[in-house]
Fold:
Amino acid sequence: MPVVGSGATDPVASEELAPIARHIAREAARLFAARGYDATSVREIVEAAGVTKPTMYYYFGSKEGLAEALVTAPLDGLCDRMRSILDREGEPRRMLARLIEANFEFVRQDPDRGRFIYGLFFGPLGSGLASELARFAERIEALWDEAMGRFVAAGLIDRSRVRGAVAALRGLVIVHTIEFLYRGTELGPGLPARLVADLLEGFARREAHR
Amino acid sequence: MPVVGSGATDPVASEELAPIARHIAREAARLFAARGYDATSVREIVEAAGVTKPTMYYYFGSKEGLAEALVTAPLDGLCDRMRSILDREGEPRRMLARLIEANFEFVRQDPDRGRFIYGLFFGPLGSGLASELARFAERIEALWDEAMGRFVAAGLIDRSRVRGAVAALRGLVIVHTIEFLYRGTELGPGLPARLVADLLEGFARREAHR
DNA sequence: ATGGACTTACCGAACGGTAGGTATTATCGC
DNA sequence: GCGATAATACCTACCGTTCGGTAAGTCCAT
Structure:
């Protein structure tokens, strides 16, 4: 039984079998985002996907397996993408803007998946995926920490302010992502760089500050 | 039948009846925060509260009525509190710090309630309370807008940067609230003023910036 | 007798999951 | 080449349990 969320051992078979599984997953993401995981029944998912319950169980093993498939591989991908940016980009501001952009791109690719994942991150501690989500949250935060550490190394930020800066940065990413997901606000091409500048410079008028 | 969420027309009766209803509400908030609304059954709530289902229905009318009771009055209170601060505090920085503190105090008073409400705000669009939550979100955002408008009026922030500043401010409040709710990080007494300063000044070292 | 606060027992519907099956294709052994 | 077998991809019908909610009742104070 191929369980997409676990990664298939046979790439060819996985590619040939993936279309139906992907279709089920897409429908599930839409419903999970709109209703929430617990309020969406398996019956609704399979009806929306035009298959039967055992078919869904054949591909994903369980309702939870399905939800896991929606989040694990994509979040792995995001972490890898961020890791890659950190490893290749030397200039701190540009590096940070690209990290932010990677996060925005993640939700732009599939807003329903983004809504579902954001809902999980801010949702109940007791849900089945919680420990897995917590691990991703830690991974991502470690990446932000490392990014901010580059600003310290470059003398752009005081070491004592790293914690505060990471928190502010995460807040910026979260709030803009939410605006996009729930209000359809554009995440324009210049936004990441703008956010980096805001983070570093603040909002006060320079003359008023003096 | 007194439905606490709707506001009782008889204050005396409401006060005399409130203890059991409050106890049910407290247990519900705990379970909703830990499991999520949809994954928490009425049976679990009444078992935790040590009453029977019809008793819960007697006080709250429905599961949804119970959830509404957990959010409506408290959020009304928060909005009123913020409104009051805006009306009485003239100095922009101090006013903003006090608004931030009001938000922190809101979740400190009852973290389970806070977790439940935050989960709803970032949760599925389709849930029953969504329209009501959306109204509160708008109200709160209008208050942040007004607060930021004070900075413009005082010449502290450029008018063109208000949108960005409000978003950043909301991000700061969200991220620190989440740290508190999910990681137990302190929301110390100096934090609101620190956040106002960060918002205005940014994180860059002044010398490095020059 | 009445009303408020609570109860037991029950309702129809729905839940996630599965037993047993079918159809098709590929492979194997003779 | 052919029949048997295995694997894959899907199905119908069903399972035991639980869901939110309610009918009918009891107890107690006034």
Remarks:
- Residues 70-209 of chain B form a domain with the Tetracycline Repressor; domain 2 fold (CATH 1.10.357.10).
